Amino acid sequence: MTHISEREYELPNAVIGDLLKTALEDKSVISLGPGEPDFDLPAPLVEYIKEIAGDVNHYSPVGGRRDLKEAIVKKLKRENKIETNPDNVIVTSGSQEALLMATACSLDVSEQVIIPNPSFLGYLPTFELFNAFPIALELKEEDNWNINPDELKKLVDRKKTKAILINTPANPTGNVLSKKLLEEIADVAIDNDLYIFSDEAYEQLTYGKKHHSIASLNGLKNHAVTFQTFSKGYAMCGFRLGYAVGPSPLIKAMEKIHVYTTVSAPTISQKLGVKALSMKKEYTTNMVKEYDRRRKFLVKGLNQLGLETINPNGAFYTFSNIKHLADDSFKFSFDMLRKAKVAVVPGREFGRYGEGYIRCSYATDYKNIEEALRRMDKFISKIQK
Ligand SMILES: Cc1ncc(COP(=O)(O)O)c(C=O)c1O
Question: How confident is the prediction for the chain on average, in pLDDT?
Fold first, then answer.
């Protein structure tokens, strides 16, 4: 019989996969599930692919092409106020690969990493894959989904904790951490000599609140590892291009194991990355404008349906309270999928403190959001009776 490892067996199944598969197969379903931009690749990048197609069949250097790393260093200075150099940058196949390698290189078996809960469903399995020990830091609706620094301090075990993970703007809550809060988190990391893994996948997608990179703060040179990506801001998910910037010993260690993961991010993607960083900002700002229009409409609509929803300042998600309607967010989401033909993601998918909520994505057409709200209205009216 084929043997499946204990490690694999213990990993949670992402229910989101089943849900979105059903949503894709049934054309009558409107999906508010997507975790990726619905926009086309920006036109200059489409043109550039044609130009370079004949010259991208070779491996790129392990850890990334020099020209891309140099462009990333300039971008980090310009947009994130992070001063660094190409040796402190590693280019990866999406930022998810960077997080996986950073975990492999910084956390020994049973060492602890504190992660916000609810948070992106990719975190927990990544840490568990390496037998590190994730500790949940509860985020609360009444704190606007912010990290509570006092709660964070209580979770630090000076012998076992190695890292704190933060995500701003956040998936699934859309929350953007303020500079003051980042400073408080930075103090905890410095006082306890911890890494901070800062996932900034949605850094470009903010609405009226500025994104700050924790690595730009004083004293974090040896602590902060910043993860960024081309997936969201440039609608380049399928090109699998991300990177990490951090302390050079850790980045060197990640380069060492890159040989055993993907060797290098695709050469075509890396060349496109250089081009993307040289483009006018308007390609991203136009997407942000459209997301913002949908965000306002969706947040208003959900609140009108009685699903309390905090106005998110970033990413492309809303996170709504359904506690008055259901105890089980999975059951609620599957019922709504079946009966109202609207797909949303159950909050428990993002951790136990996500129970009682649903995530809706507005990375879909405005008209779809209008129709989804109409259907949700009918569905909710029926279950309230
Ligand atoms: C918070 C967060 N971090 C990281 C990722 C992974 O992005 P990438 O495409 O760069 O691997 C995602 C993808 O949805 C995400 O939501």
Answer: 95
What's the average model confidence in pLDDT over 60-76?
98
Structure pTM?
A: 0.96
Q: pLDDT by residue (tens digit) across 198-225?
A: 999 999 999 999 999 999 999 998 999 9
Block residue for tokens 């504190």: 114
- Ligand 1 centroid from CA 369, angstroms: 23
Between vectors from CA 48 to CA 46 and to CA 49, what angle results, nearest 5°?
Answer: 70
Q: What is the mean pLDDT of residues 296-300?
A: 98
Q: What domains sit in the chain, N to C, each tagged with a CATH number?
A: 6-41+282-384 (3.90.1150.10), 58-278 (3.40.640.10)
Closest C-alpha residue for ligand 1 atom 3: 201
Within 6 A (CB) of ligand 1 lie: 35, 94-96, 120, 122, 167, 171, 199, 201, 229, 231, 237, 242
Please give the helix or strand (H or E) that residue 57 lies within, else none. Answer: none
- Percent of residues, the chain, with pLDDT higher than 90: 91
Ligand 1: centre distance to CA 230 (Å):
10
Q: What is the DSSP string of 213-237?
A: -GGGSTT-TTTEEEEEESTTTTT-G
Residue given tokens 């989401």 in the structure block: 333
Instruction: State the pairing for strand pair 112-117/161-167.
Output: parallel
Burial class (CB in 10 A: 0-12, 13-18, 19+), 78: exposed
**Distance from the first to the final alpha carbon of the chain:** 51
Q: Rounded to the nearest 5°, which phi and psi values hold at 85?
A: -140, 165
**Ligand 1 center–CA 93 separation, angstroms:** 11
Pocket test for ligand 1, best of 20, 36, 145, 171 (most atoms within 8 A of CB): 171
